[in-house]
From TrEMBL:
Substrate binds at K79, K103, S359. SMART domains: ELFV_dehydrog. The active site is at K115 (proton donor). This is Glutamate dehydrogenase. It comes from Rariglobus hedericola. One of its GO terms (molecular function) is glutamate dehydrogenase (NAD+) activity. Residues 192-423 form the Glutamate/phenylalanine/leucine/valine/L-tryptophan dehydrogenase C-terminal domain. Pfam families: ELFV_dehydrog (PF00208), ELFV_dehydrog_N (PF02812). Belongs to the Glu/Leu/Phe/Val dehydrogenases family. InterPro entries: Aminoacid_DH-like_N_sf, Glu/Leu/Phe/Val/Trp_DH, Glu/Leu/Phe/Val/Trp_DH_C, Glu/Leu/Phe/Val/Trp_DH_dimer, Glu/Leu/Phe/Val_DH_AS, Glu_DH, NAD(P)-bd_dom_sf, NAD_bind_Glu_DH.
Length: 426
């Protein structure tokens, strides 16, 4: 194996971690990153693995495995979500922490990347069990987190209520209210206006920019969205606001296709009542695999990583691929799409950056105890996304490379510059 094909770590070794490392190596080679700082920029600084015991409603104590990976702290505290999902592994968490580092640097935020997770199906838990899991996970993390150390946020399987429980747990431990220890909280306890819709709003805004750059009117465009959680649903609503017709949606239970347009409100009501889209009658049933290959102007993978692969990349029928999820396109699929040349990609570290940008706004507001309106938040968000998008386009032209590689090179280069400037502590 060539060095660029290795993850460089047996601890995190997994398909998704190797994928992130491969992306890093391609970008580091492109900008000729100095060897003295290369591996320090690539590999995570710190990881924590904990056992999380939870007493279930039936009286049985069950043990879950939890993780937190902090990629680097050269620019400030680490920042990243916590996901509750049965498939969580330490390799996945490490890859997500790496992507978060590059995303924060690309957006110009004073953070390193982090990610956490617990291997659990949150839908199988009662509310009391979910609260117990959330609080015990945060209790185990307390020595390693804090407003100036590591700031968590919601991710797949978690939400603002989980963040409120975690903030309360940390605050009770230290003896005073510390809202800035997590973001994505309810507004009542220090959350920010606009945070809930931030990621999806940012995805839709960047799609609109991309369509306009291609001389395509949003009113003439259609979109397919894989993943109808917070990000996918908010992106769908925002795209519809721009005039885009949403023709297919899906969640873990499967998807629905309606060429005339999906009734988003009806889908959301059904999902709120039944917790999934299963059994909805708003379109023709399709699998998540079939949904990715439907004809559309914009395809938005907004669920799990590695869903666009070498097997299906040649069959995508979209003009724009907007990566609302982290790492949805494998390295082999990327090469196929580059060779095709007919799909414009908005890479994940740019496309879904709206969430961490508004998380940063929430953290700043909590620290200064001064809060902004929703309009102020969204105007500031779009300004940062504009700046990052324009920087990526300049980098793409300067280096003569695909948009993903340009975005990675910018983010990784900024992290490496910070590490080189600070030097190596003896």
């Amino acid at each position: 194996m060539k060095p660029s094909d290795r993850s460089g770590s047996s601890l995190y070794d997994s398909d998704v971690f190797r994928m992130a490392c491969r992306q890093f190596d391609l970008a580091a080679d492109l900008i000729d990153l100095d060897r003295d700082v290369r591996e320090r920029t690539k590999l995570p600084k710190r990881c924590l693995t904990v056992t999380v015991p939870v007493k279930h409603d039936d009286g049985v104590v069950r043990i879950y495995e939890g993780y937190r990976v902090q990629h680097h702290l050269s620019l400030g505290p680490t920042k990243g979500g916590i996901r509750f999902h049965p498939g969580v592994t330490i390799g996945e968490v490490a890859a997500l922490a790496m992507w978060m580092s590059w995303k924060c640097a690309l957006a110009g935020l004073p953070y390193g990347g982090a990610k956490g997770g617990v291997a659990v199906d949150p839908h199988a838990l009662s509310r009391r069990e979910l609260e117990a899991l959330s609080r015990r996970y945060m209790q185990e993390m307390i020595p390693f987190v804090g407003p100036s150390i590591d700031v968590a946020a919601p991710d797949m399987g978690t939400n603002e209520q989980v963040m409120a429980w975690m903030m309360d747990t940390y605050s009770n431990q230290v003896g005073n209210s510390v809202p800035a220890v997590v973001t994505g909280k309810p507004i009542a306890v220090g959350g920010s206006e606009g945070r809930r819709e931030a990621t999806g709003h940012g995805v839709a805004y960047l799609i609109k920019r991309q369509l306009e750059s291609m001389s395509l009117r949003p009113q003439d465009a259609t979109a397919v969205i894989q993943g109808f959680g917070n990000v996918g649903a908010e992106a769908a609503l925002a795209l519809r606001g721009y005039g885009v017709r949403i023709v297919a949606i899906s969640d873990v239970s499967g998807g629905f296709h309606n060429p005339r347009g999906i009734d988003l409100e009806a889908a959301l009501l059904h999902q709120a009542k039944h917790r999934t889209l299963a059994g909805w009658a708003g379109g023709d049933a399709v699998s998540n695999v079939e949904l990715l290959e439907l004809p559309c102007t914009v395809l938005v993978p907004a669920a799990m990583e590695r869903v666009i692969t070498a097997d299906n990349a040649g069959r995508l029928r979209c003009r724009v691929l907007a990566e609302a999820a982290n790492g949805p396109t494998t390295n082999d699929a990327d090469l196929i799409l580059q060779a095709r040349g007919d799909v414009e990609i908005i890479p994940d570290i740019l496309c879904n950056a709206g969430g961490v940008v508004v998380s940063y706004f929430e953290w700043v507001q909590d620290l200064q105890s001064l809060f902004w309106t929703r309009a102020e938040v969204l105007v500031k968000l779009c300004a940062i996304l504009d700046r990052a998008s324009e920087a990526v386009e300049r980098q793409r032209v300067r280096l003569g490379c695909p948009r993903r590689l340009a975005a990675l090179a910018l983010g990784i280069g900024r992290v490496a510059e910070a590490k080189a400037s600070r030097g190596l502590f003896p």
